[in-house]
Amino acid sequence: MRITPRDEDYARWYTDCIQKGELADYSPVRGCMVIRPHGFAVWERIREILDRHIKDTGHVNAYFPMFIPKSFLAKEAKHVEGFAMECAVVTHSGLEKTPEGDLAVCGKLEEELVVRPTSETIINHMFAKWVESYRDLPLLINQWANVVRWEMRTRLFLRTAEFLWQEGHTAHATPAEADEEARKMLEVYRRFAHETLALSVITGEKTEAERFAGADHTYTIEGMMQDRRALQAGTSHDLGQNFSRAFDIRFQNAEGELEYAWQTSWGVSTRLVGAVIMAHSDDKGLVLPPRIAPIHVVLIPIYRKDAEKERVLEAVTTIAQQLRDRDLSVEVDDRDHLKPGAKYYEWEKKGVPLRLEVGPRDLDKDQVFSARRDTGEKAPIPLAGLETSVTSLLDQIQADLLEKNRVFRETHTYPAETYADLRSVVEGEGGFVLARWCGNPDCETRIKEETKATIRCLPEDLPDDPGPCILCQSESVQRVIFSRAY
RNA sequence: CGGGGUGUGGCUCAGCUUGGCUAGAGCGCUGCGUUCGGGUCGCAGAGGUCGCAGGUUCGAAUCCUGUCACCCCGACCA
Quick one: A334 and A372 in the same domain? Predict the structure, then answer.
């Protein structure tokens, strides 16, 4: 029943929100979760909206197999190094009954198959067949799929052994075009995070140590959660020619010469659902931004006598229809065995942005009574023009959530001039630390080992600010963001 | 893999030290009634081979041995 408050145990609060909000449940398989209908509806809204943005930028969807020949993984050295240890591998094709009545594997495969941890290898194998001429480029493909990474330690939505995502894979004729593509998709992610998820993420480039296995450059969007830790919410990679060389993706250019293609890949996953929960929800449960809420408005009829019931239910039905005509998702909670208060608690746990109470007293005054999920603010709304009022109220909630998240991130972002300053933030209440870094991976590693803070990114749009490295004091050009992260 | 812990109705747990009535509680669930502007109340009811296997005993949730699973901390990690 009770949701553990955030200041008591943040990790418990997070899983309580998910389970009591009926987004997901643990499965019989370690590290894998069941996404329940309410949680899947959130993912579906994310998918619908982002899919539109991906298509609007010229990409098309396709589907590739989830099984990858083991030999493919070995073709790109850094890539295999990055993923080898967390691959699930299919070695057999069948089961047979043993004399003891158990089941034993049989039908050993000639070449073992890896369950995709990401699809660069198999997609680029196909790209090699499809790309012959510069006229075949750019090749702009996206797929919505599941992937498997056998993580040691998992958390609902944030890190699960199997997760759902979208992965874009592109091939281009020039390095400039590929880098432009990688940055363009990062911008698509940034806008999506801001406008749809109400997450005020920052953008920037990853350091070499934090880069995708096999990329030349990795760009990221990073959000700040309510415990002031960072969450990587999406990445976009400039792969250079690393995969095209490994998979022999060559094209003939206008001058008739053979060239390796320049590539990108980019993805966001069901982790976004976790980001939304961690960023917006409160001690009463989920708070979902209206744009991804499966239910925008819940209507609670209130009545005492049968005569009132008839009148109220009739009004509620009319109101629901008016709102649905404006493309709003409306739930009418006319369950008879629950008191209104019990219903309030339930829909608050599920994160419905707006609750409308409709009782005889309201109808006498030609109004309904509204309650915002995010602020708890309650106010009457006149029945006349209700659809417009509700729509703008939902827009207001969406905007307020983004603003709240932005202010929270900015108030917990601190410049640091000394290593002691950095440590006191990171090891204290947490947050983003803007500090100079010389570019030496040794400094980065030592800070990580000593403070558990990593460089989240080299932020974009930050003016050069020369000075001494926070650790080794040698000359550095700009500041980077340090933080503990999920 | 190292350290710690837990397995008992759907959920959270008590009972185990010191073996002994028909294995309990709260929540949830079902039915009837009552109630309905922030978690109503009453009555009746369903639901458990006490993780699994073996042993000790007249008798095991309880003691012993083995085994399996899960959780937490650490190592690991886009």
Answer: yes
Task: Assess whether A149 and A36 both reside in one domain.
Answer: yes
Positions on chain B within 7 A of a protein C-beta: 1, 27, 34-40, 69-71, 73-78
**What pTM, to 2 d.p., does this model score?**
0.95
Tell whether A378 is covered by a domain: yes
Last residue of a domain, one of A368, A395, A422: A395
Q: Check: CB of residue A341 under 8 Å from CB of residue A347.
A: no
CATH number of the CATH domain containing A120: 3.30.930.10
Give the nearest nucleotide to A303, CA to C1'. Answer: B36
Same domain, A385 and A447: no
Largest CA distance in chain A: 85
Q: What is the pLDDT of residues A82-115, one digit of tens each?
A: 888 888 888 888 877 776 666 778 888 998 999 9
Question: What digits encode the pLDDT tens for the residues A176-224?
Answer: 999 999 999 999 999 999 999 999 999 999 999 999 989 999 999 999 9
Residue A358 belongs to what domain range? 295-395
Contact partners, residue A390, CB within 8 Å, separation at least 6 = A296, A297, A323, A326, A328, A354, A356, A381
Dist CA A220 CA A458 (whole Å)? 9
Q: Is there contact between A189 and strand B, defined as CB under 7 Å from any strand atom?
A: no
Regarding whether A216 and A140 lie in a shared domain, the answer is yes
Average pLDDT over residues A352-361: 96
Domain tally, chain A: 3
Q: How many CB atoms lie within 10 A of CB A117?
A: 22
What is the complex's ipTM, to 2 decimals? 0.85
The count of residues in chain A is 486
Say yes or no: Cβ of A336 under 7 A from any atom of strand B. yes
Query: What Å distances lie between residue A327 and A3, A51, A388, CA to CA?
Result: 32, 19, 12
Question: How distant is C1' of B45 from CA of A21, in Å?
Answer: 30
